[in-house]
Design the sequence.
């Protein structure tokens, strides 16, 4: 889940890294009168990870409308913020100590403490939220910022340039995805995230390098190893959402204007990905 939800950094980059002929996490599909660009994103980056590849900037320039997993402008709504908070807070008798049990809570406490996090500060939150928040805290400590993510970058540019912004799903849809996980599954997810916490700096560094060079094989292997072990999770987190988005993306091909669709890179690689589903519908995507 962390792989999908945070998606994902590396050392300082410069424009010379994007040599002519190199590939990126960027594809194009063609309608009769337009082009739809599919950009795999890293949801959090460091300011030093800019500028983005010219191919990505060119795709943005060619598009009149930007689609994202969710329209990030929704996050400005007080109603949405209230829903997010409400979904994250647990009743007093169902906080982390109750959900995890004594033995697992003790292990989680130790693992969190080892990476500088005091677990009791999350006792009243759902395990999925604690896992995401702790991962975010780690990433921010490493210098990664949500406001420096790919979506945030293009959101600000689109606002400035007067381009339309839309979402393939809503914030409510994403909250519902977590809430539908059983508490036991959430507990296991939290433990798993904490067990991997020590490796996070190296993991995100490798992930961003793979994204930079358009290495779809790396992402597909990581997804298979992290989510493939739980087919139900793989289906709900990735494949089911990809299938839900597919008709919306294919409908864009019937228009006469260009679109840029930005989703987590994990949605564009491997079995059941948007690219895979498009191919099965007879629509070929070219990686740029």
Sequence:
């Amino acid at each position: 889940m962390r792989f999908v939800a945070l998606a994902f950094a590396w050392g300082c980059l410069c424009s010379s890294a994007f040599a002519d002929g190199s590939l990126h996490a960027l594809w194009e599909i063609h309608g009769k009168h337009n082009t739809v660009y599919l950009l795999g994103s890293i949801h959090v980056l460091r300011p030093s990870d800019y500028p983005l590849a010219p191919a990505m900037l060119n795709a943005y320039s060619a598009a009149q409308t930007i689609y994202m997993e969710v329209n990030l402008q929704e996050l400005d709504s007080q109603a949405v913020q209230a829903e997010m908070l409400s979904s994250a807070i647990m009743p007093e008798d169902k906080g982390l100590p109750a959900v995890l049990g004594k033995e697992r809570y003790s292990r989680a406490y130790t693992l969190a403490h080892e990476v500088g996090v005091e677990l009791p500060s999350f006792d009243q939150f759902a395990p999925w939220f604690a896992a995401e928040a702790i991962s975010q805290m780690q990433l921010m400590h490493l210098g990664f910022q949500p406001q420096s993510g790919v979506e945030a970058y293009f959101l600000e540019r689109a606002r400035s340039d007067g381009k339309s912004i839309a979402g393939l799903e809503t914030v409510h849809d994403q909250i519902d995805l977590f809430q539908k996980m059983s508490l036991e599954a959430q507990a296991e997810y939290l433990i798993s995230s904490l067990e991997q916490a020590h490796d996070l700096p190296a993991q995100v560094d490798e992930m961003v390098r793979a994204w930079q060079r358009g290495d779809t094989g790396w992402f597909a292997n990581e997804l298979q190893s992290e989510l493939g072990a739980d087919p139900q999770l793989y289906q709900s987190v990735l494949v089911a959402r990809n299938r839900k988005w597919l008709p919306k993306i294919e409908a864009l091909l019937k228009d006469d204007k260009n679109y840029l669709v930005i989703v987590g890179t994990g949605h564009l690689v491997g079995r059941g990905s948007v690219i895979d589903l498009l191919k099965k519908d007879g629509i070929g995507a070219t990686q740029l």
